[in-house]
């Protein structure tokens, strides 16, 4: 109740949510309104996440790309570095080099480069704090979110250089690769958080200008580097995530015209080519985690949609998007019936989240009901648990 009163007292300081985030702005509005009205489900979801934030997140040390022992080939600790997850030592070679691919099997050596996991945590924690701020008006959450963003992106000693040149390296192989750019979705998600705390005094005009410049520099690197040009032409989920990352970055850079251009001229034709007549995604069916990667493509489309919708682009209206969802629905309900390879369990809440968003967007109540039947079951206390309170 104390948090609800705080929300009502601070509403004037908050700007309405709009569909420009990496997640669905409509769900954020629904959460804020339900919480304000005292909906028990919304209150429970927010209070559980707030308790976790108060006990853990507010006191956490800022994450930084420089927290690593191994330096990238550049020798610059501020350059992002990660290893490609599905590549392993070759048992037929004395030194194991060059590494060979075992799709879907994660080599634990990837955790030797901590920025991959730290970047993932950054994206989750900053969005969780930002949503809590948006819903409750509690400035503590905005202040912590701002601190985390400044450290990762803007700190002159600790901040990440705006490139992904050394992302997903493969030991023993020197070829420049574009695939590592997909790691940057985690940092692009964090850019989302800055938009949500924009009304807070904790996020200054200087912060705003500097982060916009970081995003512009990163977008330029994405579109002009050899790595970026390789990923631009990827035919599978990597290509669509490349576009989704560009959209999030262009939004953070304040380049609204580029948002519409990327959505209409790249996302739409790219996605249309990836979906077969029967609704399958053939590029993903050859993977050992084919249900995961088929869903991963739609999650990229969802991310792109939620950014582009502010420019009047509704990507769920694409017939290919609806055809792909229709094909996947039975397997979201019963993953064990999936006829293609899936060597690890599939989290059904991912399918429920997609169906719920698309069902609301397209006025498809049968999809919304299916999402409710599947449910959004998670042990994590984060922004996704709050946004999907109606499915729990």
What is the secondary structure topology, with strand pairs?
Layout: H1 2-10, H2 25-36, H3 40-57, E1 81-83, E2 87-88, E3 100-101, H4 115-136, H5 139-154, E4 166-169, H6 185-196, H7 205-224, H8 226-232, H9 237-252, H10 256-274, H11 282-285, H12 290-308, H13 319-333, H14 348-362, H15 365-374, H16 383-387
Parallel strand pairs: 1-4
Antiparallel strand pairs: 2-3
Helix pairs in contact: 2-3, 2-4, 3-4, 4-5, 4-6, 6-9, 7-8, 7-9, 9-10, 9-12, 10-12, 12-13, 12-14, 13-14, 14-15
Describe the structure.
This protein is mainly α and 392 residues long. It has a domain at 58-233: Alpha/alpha barrel (Glycosyltransferase), CATH 1.50.10. Helices cover 56% and strands 3% of the residues. It has helices at 2-10, 25-36, 40-57, 115-136, 139-154, 185-196, 205-224, 226-232, 237-252, 256-274, 282-285, 290-308, 319-333, 348-362, 365-374, 383-387, and strands spanning 81-83, 87-88, 100-101, 166-169. The strands form two sheets. Strands 1-4 form a two-stranded parallel sheet. Helix 9 (237-252) runs parallel beside helix 12. The longest helix is centred in the first third of the chain and has 22 residues, at 115-136. The protein is globular and about 65 Å long. Residues 4-19 have low confidence and may be disordered.
